[in-house]
Amino acid sequence: MTAVRIRDLVLEFTGTTTVRALDGIDLEVAEGASLAIVGESGSGKSTLASVIGRLHPRSARIVSGTLEVGGVDVLALDIDGLRRYRRDTLAYIAQDPIGSLDPTMRIGRQLQLVLRAMGEETSTRRQIELLDAMRIANSERVIRLFPHQVSGGMAQRVAIAMAMCRAPKLLIADEPTAALDSQVREEVVRLLFEQARAQGTTVLWLSHDLPAVARWCDEVAVMYAGRVVERGPAQAVLGQPVHPYSRALAATDPSRARRGERLASIPGAPPVLHGASAGCAFAPRCAARIDACTTTRPEPAATRHSLCIRTEEMRAQVRLEVSA
Ligand SMILES: Nc1ncnc2c1ncn2[C@@H]1O[C@H](COP(=O)(O)OP(=O)(O)O)[C@@H](O)[C@H]1O
Ligand SMILES: [Mg+2]
Question: Looking at residue 257, what is its pLDDT?
C-alpha cells in the first residue's frame, strides 16, 4: 500500500512577488516506511511538509498537481474531512518544541485533551504512562508543569508523546531535533522511530542530520529548489549518490552534519524561484554542468530517480568510484 502519493505538485506563495516553493514534486511513500527529506535551507522541505498536512498558509496557492494520503485526495477535503484527516491520520511535530505546546496549559491537561479526543481513558495514571514511554523522568512532576518550565529536550519529548499516543498513520516531523543537544537528540530520535515501527506509522522526517537519517530511515528524498532531485534507499542515496547535488551534499563535512548544523559547504545558495525553472535549477552551482542543463528540464524516471540529464554518466562515474 502507498501511504503518500504526490504527482507534479506545484505550489506558489503569492504576494508582491510570487515565490514558487514547490516546482513539481513527485513522491511516493510506502505504508509503514520512513522517508527522510533532506536538502539545504530554502529547498522547500517545510512547505512540502505543511501542504501534506494542509497546514500551508493562505498565501500559498496550489497551482497544479495531486496529493493523496492513504488514498484520500487531501487537496479536495472539506472542513469536516480535513478535521477527520488531522485527527485520524496525521500527526505533525514542529521544529520548535516549546512552540508546539500550548503555553497556557499544564502538560498533563494537554495530554488529557489528546486522550479525550482519541476517546481514551484520560486518567493521571494514563498521562504518566505516556510520558514514561518517552523515558521522561519524574513524569508525575512533569504533568503539573507548564511548557516554559521544562527544557527544550523535555518539551520535544512531550510533543512526541502527544503525537505518538494517537497512533497516527502518518507522522510528519519537521527537523524535530534541530534545537536539541546531541545526546538528547539521539535518544529522542531513537524513541520516535522505535514507536513508529511498533505502531506501523509512516514517517516523513525532515532533517539535516545525515548520519541519523542513514541510521533510521528506509528511504531518502533529496530536495532542491522545490523538486525531489534524487530519491531511493537511504544507504544508496547517501552512500553512492548519483545526482550532482546529492553528491555535493553527501560530501559536506559529516562531523558538521552530526552536530546538526546547516549543510553549507557547497558554494552559493539555492535559488528563489518565481516560476517554473527552465532547465535544472542546480545548474549554476553544478560542477558537472553542460550547456543543455540550462535549457533542458530533467524529468523523473520510474525507478530510483535522479533529476539530472547526465544521470547515466553519473551512474557510470559512481560505479567506477565504487570499484576503485
Ligand atoms: N510563507 C511564505 N511566504 C513566502 N515565501 C515562503 C514562505 N514560506 C517559505 N517561503 C519560501 O519558499 C521557499 C522554500 O522554503 P521552505 O519550505 O521553508 O524550505 P526549507 O524548509 O527547505 O528550508 C523559500 O524560498 C522560502 O523563502
Ligand atoms: Mg524548513
Answer: 47
